């Protein structure tokens, strides 16, 4: 019995020590901005910021995302609903949530607002800086 108590005590102590050794997550900074498409503030654009880890530091950093409001404004949040984004360079993915998606084999009746190439990370980049608004301009 004494051996069992010591084993359990050792396991608990080990678990407590290991919990204290984990690295804290990266610092998030408030990240807000606007998106303009063809000269107009654009709502309904799904925006995802992917930290460019090769340009920043070693480690795994969370992506942040938002959907722009009717006035073109957005505020980034991580997947676990933490406000902000990791400071530094990011690759951006854009998807128009209002884009017409016709059935297979049928043609769209209106052109898309944004080039489908923006749905691939890297066509658009931005740097998140604490205290500086983000302005995304799509021609």
Report on the architecture of this protein.
- With 139 residues, the chain is α+β, with helices and mostly antiparallel strands.
- Helix content is 14%, strand content 34%.
- A 5-stranded antiparallel sheet has the order 7-5-4-9-10, with no helix packed on it. Strands 2, 3, 6 and 11 form a 4-stranded mixed sheet that branches. Strands 1-8 form a two-stranded antiparallel ribbon.
- A hairpin with a 2-residue loop joins strand 2 and strand 3.
- The longest helix is centred in the N-terminal third of the chain and has 20 residues, at 2-21.
- The N and C termini lie far apart (74 Å).
- The model is unreliable at 1-20 (pLDDT under 50).
List the helices and strands and how they pair.
Layout: H1 2-21, E1 28-29, E2 32-37, E3 40-41, E4 45-51, E5 64-67, E6 73-75, E7 77-78, E8 85-86, E9 88-96, E10 124-128, E11 134-138
Parallel strand pairs: 2-11
Antiparallel strand pairs: 1-8, 2-3, 2-6, 4-5, 4-9, 5-7, 9-10
Computed over alpha carbons, the radius of gyration is: 22 Å
Work out the count of structural domains. 1
Low-confidence stretches: 1-20
What's the CATH architecture name?
Sandwich
What is the terminal separation in angstroms? Answer: 74 Å
- What is the H-and-E element order? HEEEEEEEEEEE
* Sequence of strands across the biggest β-sheet: 7-5-4-9-10
* Helical fraction: 10-25%
Q: What is the CATH C level class, in words?
A: Mainly Beta
Number of strands: 11
SS-based structural class?
A: alpha+beta
CATH homology group:
Carboxypeptidase-like, regulatory domain
Report the sheet with the most strands, covering strand number, pairing sense and barrel closure.
5 strands, antiparallel
Indicate the mean pLDDT: 83
Number of helices: 1
- From the structure provided, what is the oligomeric state, counting identical versus distinct chains? single chain
CATH fold name: Immunoglobulin-like
**Strand percentage, roughly?**
25-35%
């Amino acid at each position: 019995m004494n051996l069992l108590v010591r084993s359990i005590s050792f396991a608990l102590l080990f678990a407590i020590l290991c919990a204290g050794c984990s690295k804290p997550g990266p610092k998030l900074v408030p990240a807000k901005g606007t998106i303009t498409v063809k000269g107009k503030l654009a709502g309904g654009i799904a925006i995802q910021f992917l930290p460019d880890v090769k340009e920043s530091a070693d480690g795994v950093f969370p992506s942040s995302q938002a959907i722009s409001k009717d006035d073109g404004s957005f505020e980034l949040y991580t997947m676990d609903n933490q406000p902000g984004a990791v400071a530094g360079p990011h690759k951006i993915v854009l998807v128009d949530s209002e884009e017409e998606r016709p059935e297979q084999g049928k043609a769209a009746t209106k052109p898309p607002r944004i080039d489908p190439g923006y749905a691939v990370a890297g066509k658009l980049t931005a740097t998140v800086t604490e205290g500086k608004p983000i302005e995304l301009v799509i021609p």
